[in-house]
Specification:
Blueprint: E1 2-4, H1 11-21, H2 25-33, E2 38-39, H3 46-58, E3 62-64, E4 78-79, E5 82-85, E6 89-93, E7 99-103, E8 107-130, H4 132-136, E9 142-164, E10 169-174, H5 191-205, E11 210-213, H6 214-217, E12 225-235, E13 240-250, H7 252-270
Parallel strand pairs: 4-10, 8-11
Antiparallel strand pairs: 1-2, 1-3, 5-6, 6-7, 8-9, 8-13, 9-10, 12-13
Helix pairs in contact: 1-2, 1-3
């Protein structure tokens, strides 16, 4: 079952989901509060899933019971490098020249999103030498001194995914990866202005498309997968040891999966079983 959280208070939906899944309401509330669609693992008959979908709907959420195999039917998006506005279609091409043509009338969903990644590093430098006091007394007394440096970076990647239902197709438009010459005379010097203009034109040209920006607003609440790395090295001539520990995380894959769930929900809305 795919669950789409309500825009406002999630308390009622959290209680309904907790009762059906055997989880604590505090846990389901935290999941719903992220604002992104997710898959709720349910067991039991289809009637139970449909009953839960009705209770969630009454609580302001949306839920669709879909076969597990539908998760494998989402089209792999073309990573656009260039694009072109034709009289009746949007054409995107990747770096290898592969092309996807989306007729404006066939575009069903435009998802605005952003992915976030962060990195924290701690660098410890330990220097060993002989004590000056000890040397003055003629005693080789070793001493060490450790300094610590901390660095943190945050990266934000705005992007949009444009979906067609039949035949399934998708185009990913990453703000910093695009060549904006397709905007013609409307192209600006800055990528953020060009990206905003591209989406404005695209949304205006697609009369049947649903616009969804929840993954743009809630990206900061969707956690990434943490990765940790450690490396050490010695500078023999100066008796110095340096240890660097880096922890990084990014939610790009989680955001992309949430966008695909929005596609499945939209297809279910337009073609109910």
């Amino acid at each position: 079952m795919i669950v789409l959280p309500p825009e406002g208070d999630v308390s009622a939906a959290a209680r309904a989901l907790a009762a059906a899944t055997g989880r604590e309401p505090v846990d389901t509330r935290q999941q719903l509060a992220k604002g992104a669609p997710f898959v709720a693992a349910l067991t039991g008959a289809t009637a139970e899933a449909e009953a839960l979908a009705g209770r969630l709907s009454a609580a302001g959420a949306e839920a669709r019971a879909l076969p597990v195999e539908t998760l494998g039917t989402v089209p792999e998006p073309l990573e656009a490098r260039s694009f072109e506005f034709q009289p009746d279609a949007f054409v995107a091409r990747d770096r290898a020249g592969a092309e996807v043509r989306l007729a404006f009338a066939d575009v069903a969903l435009i998802v605005r999103a952003r992915a976030e990644s962060s990195s924290q590093s701690v660098i410890e430098t330990t220097q060993k030498r002989l004590s000056r006091t000890g040397l003055a007394l003629g005693l080789p007394i070793p001493v060490s001194r450790t300094t610590t440096e901390r660095n943190e970076t945050l990266s934000i990647e705005p992007f949009a995914v444009v979906y067609r239902l039949k035949p399934p197709a998708a185009v990913r438009l990453a703000r910093e990866a695009l060549d904006y010459r397709g905007l013609g005379e409307g192209r600006a010097p800055a990528s953020f202005a060009n990206y905003a203009e591209l989406l404005r034109r695209l949304e205006a040209a697609c009369p049947r498309a649903r616009r969804d920006s929840r993954l743009e607003r809630s990206a900061g609440r969707i956690p990434g997968v943490p990765l940790e790395a450690r490396r050490s090295w010695r500078q023999a001539s100066t008796r110095t040891k340096v240890t660097e520990r880096t922890t990084s995380s990014g939610n790009a894959e989680a955001i992309a999966f949430a966008a695909d769930l929005l596609f499945l929900l939209e297809r279910s809305r337009r073609s109910p079983a």
